[in-house]
Amino acid sequence: MVAFTRFEVVRILRNKRYIIFTIGLPLAFYFIYSGIYSKSSFQGTSFAAYYMVSMAAFAGFGAALGAGGTRLAMERKNGWIHQLRITPLSATAWLGTKLTTALLVAVPCIGVVLIAGVAAHGVSLPATRWAQLVVSMVLATIPFGIMGMVVGYLFDEESAQAGQTIILLGLSILGGLWFPLSIFPAALRDVAKVFPSYGLGAVGRAALVGQGPGWVPVIGLMGWTVALGVALAWLYRRDETRAVA
Amino acid sequence: MIDNAVSFVNVHKSYGATKALAGVSFDVARGETVALLGPNGAGKSTAVGIMLGLRKADAGKVALSGLTPTGAVSAGRVGAMLQAAGLPPGVTVNEVVSLVRRLYPRPVPLGRLVDMAGLGDFAGRKVDGLSGGQAQRVRFALAVAGDPELVFLDEPTVGMDVEARRAFWRSMERLSGRGCTVVFATHYLEEADAVADRVVVLDRGKVVADGTAASIKGRVSSRIVRFELPGADPGAMMGLPGVVDVSVNGPRVTLRSTESDATVRELLGRHTAVHNLEVTGAGLEDAFLALTSTDNGR
Predict the structure, then answer these.
(1) In Å, how far is B254's CA from the nearest CA of chain A?
(2) pLDDT tier at B94 (50, 70, 90 boundaries)?
(3) Residue of B95, B153, B86, B158 lying closest to B122 (CA atoms)
(4) B15/A243 Cβ within 8 A
(5) pTM surpassing 0.90?
(6) What is the C-alpha to C-alpha distance for residues B142 and B82, in angstroms, rounded to an integer?
(7) For range A18-42, the mean pLDDT
(8) What element of type H or E holds B280?
(9) Contact between B91 and A11 using a beta-carbon 8 Å cutoff
(10) In this complex, do B85 and A87 lie within 8 Å of one another by their Cβ atoms?
């Protein structure tokens, strides 16, 4: 399984378009907005630190989602999945590998944005808070890794790209990653907390100010993990029973 | 009693209203090489899919060395080359072959595997840029990477040129020389004749013949009469006794006859210009055509 995970990670990191899109957009956003509001303090921290977490969350979300998504839809179409199914690799090992891969590729994407925050705006935190920030955000990408696989099984290879992009941008905006929730209308602000993208940003922001992540984001993320996991199990079985040979 | 490598007992499978397999039974002994022969839509791929546990039979029993198909697959005792199976983009031949080897408990050493499948020339290349024949060889390598005791090959040489096809047959023969049981689906009669110990002919989801290529050829009583006769009239040829099929190509005439002695006697009596006369037993192709219906142009 280690060999398989490495195989998958290498395949993803070799794809330059994937890297550029997943890291490029959050970095560009970060530099633009943190440049404009660099001096402002915001929600108990600097805007530069606040937005660093938002864009790190956006990058981690995109990386984890894209590890499945279109790539998985293509693998289903081209038959690599069928080839694996006639090896001793179990379904659990296969799904576990895909999820581990999603987390592993999310780590550098989150990391690059954090480094940008430190390098461009001198964001500084005690080591324990950095550790909490990284660990909680990486764990919080689990539902997005599962979401990527759901997208890969739900869409065919032609529609997956569009589906993946709409989900990424839609949930990032609705969950308050692009714009702070404080500028949302009051009604939308509460709705936003339902989305897993809100939870991902919230656990990161909690680490910035040295607080625990709080129950609302944690329960939200766990709920999404379970719901998407159930959906994935169902989609996987449906795919398995489809005519292949 | 030693279990057969494959046991297929009265297997039924339908897709909606279409019956793909209508009570198919056959066994494959250990070490045997068996061809599943049949026209497109005969049920060959469905049978292979069921043997690999990729599809569930509606009724009937399937066992691989006494195990269920999925049990045999997860124990790493089975390898397969499927038409629907592809290679992952973005990796080299070496990388994908090495990965699949690692999924099996007792894989073939990498060097020997590269040799067996003839990957040496392009092992370092990305799989995305391979020719069709090269990709087939990689898929063959994946099928045998785990040193399986049973290998399924679904139309393994489809799209290959003659030379590549013959080279592939040699790989299959080496595999069976190592004691591996090989089951392959094909619609190339020559392939079944050249490689298989036994041929199971499927047509419309039923086994219509099961035996050696020679015994299947022997089931067809017609013979082929070939000769040259300038200006031969196909209508007149059809009128000869026993003739069931006529083809005229310039001066060359080929007749299929169920009473070749009578055909030849009459032919020589009527046409003194006949020369280069030759009478042969029907080939596997003739047997195949006689066994499977041709009424829908397949």
Answers:
(1) 39
(2) very high
(3) B95
(4) yes
(5) no
(6) 11
(7) 86
(8) strand B275-281
(9) yes
(10) no
Nearest to A244 among B49, B79, B99 (CB): B49
Consecutive H or E run containing B11: strand B6-15
Distance from CA of A79 to the nearest CA of B (A): 4
Specify whether the CB–CB gap between A154 and A163 falls below 8 A: yes
Which chain B residues have a beta carbon less than 8 Å from that of A70? Answer: none
Q: Which H or E element spans position B170?
A: helix B162-177
Residues 6+ apart with CB under 8 A from B237: B243, B246, B248, B253, B255
Catalogue the E-assigned strands of B38-195. Answer: 59-64, 78-81, 150-154, 181-186
Asked whether the beta carbons of B116 and B171 are under 8 A apart, the reply is: yes
Using the Cβ of B89 and the Cβ atoms of chain A, whether some distance falls under 8 Å is answered with yes
Buried b (16+ CB within 10 A) or exposed e, B5-38: bbbbeebebeeeeebbbeebebbbeeebbbbbbb
In the structure encoding, which two tokens stand for residue B209, read together? 């013949």
B67, amino acid identity:
L
Contact B265, B274 (CB under 8 A): no
At position B204, the amino acid (one-letter code) is: R
| Side-chain half-sphere CA neighbours of B135 within 13 A | 22
Alpha carbon distance B9, B30 (integer Å): 17
Residues 4-23 of A with CB under 8 A from B: 4, 7, 10-11, 14-15
Using CB atoms, which residue from B48, B54, B104 is nearest to A85? B54
**B168, B195 in Cβ contact below 8 A?**
no
Query: Using the beta-carbon criterion (under 8 Å), do A89 and B95 form an inter-chain contact?
Result: no
Structure confidence by residue, pLDDT tens digits, B6-64: 999 999 998 888 888 898 899 999 999 999 988 888 888 889 889 998 888 898 899 99
Instruction: Give me Rg for the CA atoms of chain A.
Output: 18
d(CA B262, CA B267): 8
Residue of B nearest to A242 (CA): B55
Q: Is A2 on the interface with B (CB under 8 A)?
A: no
Which residue matches tokens 């009265």?
B10
- Judged by DSSP in three states, B203 sits in strand
Closest CA to B158 of B183, B189, B186: B186
- Whether A37 has a pLDDT exceeding 90, the answer reads no
Q: What is the nearest CA distance from B289 to chain A, expressed in angstroms?
A: 25
pLDDT band at B158 (very low <50, low <70, confident <90, very high): confident
Rounded to whole angstroms, what are the CA distances from A191 to A182, A185, A188, A196, A241? 13, 10, 5, 11, 37
Interface check for B99 against chain A (CB to CB < 8 A): the answer is yes
Q: What part of A 62-101 touches B (C-beta under 8 Å)?
A: 74-75, 78-80, 82-90
Share of chain B above pLDDT 90, in %: 31
Strand pairing category for B275-281 and B223-228: antiparallel
Contact between B100 and A3 using a beta-carbon 8 Å cutoff: no
Q: Length of chain A, please?
A: 245
Closest chain B residue to the Cα of A15, Cα to Cα: B90
